[in-house]
Amino acid sequence: MADIKNELGWSRTRMGQFHSCKRSYYYQYYAKWGGWDYRADELSKTAYRLSKMTNLPMLVGTAVHTVIQHILLDLKNIGRIDMPDPAYFARKNLLTPAYRDGLAERWRKSPKHHPPLAELYYGPDPDPETLKESGRKTANCIENFLQSGIFRNLQDDDCSNWLAIEPSFEEAKQLKVDGNVVWACPDFARRVEGDVCEVWDWKTGKPRAEDEMQLLSYGLFAHEIWGFAPDQIKLCALYLDKEPGPDSVVSYPCSRERLDSLLVQIRSDFAEMNTLLSDPVQNIPHDPDSHFPMIPEGPTCGYCFFRQLCDRGAPQKRN
Ligand code: SF4
Question: Which of 57, 187, 233, 294 is the least crowded, having the fewest Cβ atoms under 10 Å away?
Fold first, then answer.
């Protein structure tokens, strides 16, 4: 197999980690590189394993997104949903096996295919109420999607106007800024009347300030990759974990000015990331001790998947 190159890229998540803790950014984007190889050193192997880690809220998000993707692909490919009970499917076929895999520590064989679950890895194990709550939240998000105005509308829509259904990074077309990859591909997008592009992001968490930048980066994708004029792009986030009632949709304005200011931000972020590289062409980082400091111990470390590598957490022993 050809060697895969570690390329510098931009995503909202990456920049969040960059600003939150340089050491965790180093583990995620550099130390883990090659850690999938049995010949790699222990630091790379551990960083790789921890980079694959997930937790219960992330599991819920993944399950909800997977089911919605499945539903929309069914609608597009066969004109109906081939899943009698999507919420049940999510709990039984996605959440439960992932949890059992975590309990069985199947990550020891393949962290890529069986990611460690932070709650089980570091402990304490979640109590039954917390597990039930994850199942309830998953079902609630899926039910709210099925009851939403956008889903009702999509059922009678012409699928040939659909532009993206949550493509994986491998499938997604690559958006580049000055030759650098920008990871930004929406959960769903379609062309609607008047050559307007409607972009949707399914949210299982609560609204956050950084959601706007994420949606704008999808706007940049719609503009650069599909060629829509900036003011013809509608950016919508659908918040799924809510009480019954009207949809919780937040729309963000898109315009030439807003995309330009995002581009300025992305270029500045690339410049800042480059300052941590001894060889920007090859994306080789400086020494971690001098350029990727740990932050003072605090709540961020308490949630950090990499805390084992900083001696700020240890895997719990399972029998
Ligand atoms: S444990 Fe703390 S210092 Fe270490 S990588 Fe995580 S957030 Fe940074």
Answer: 57
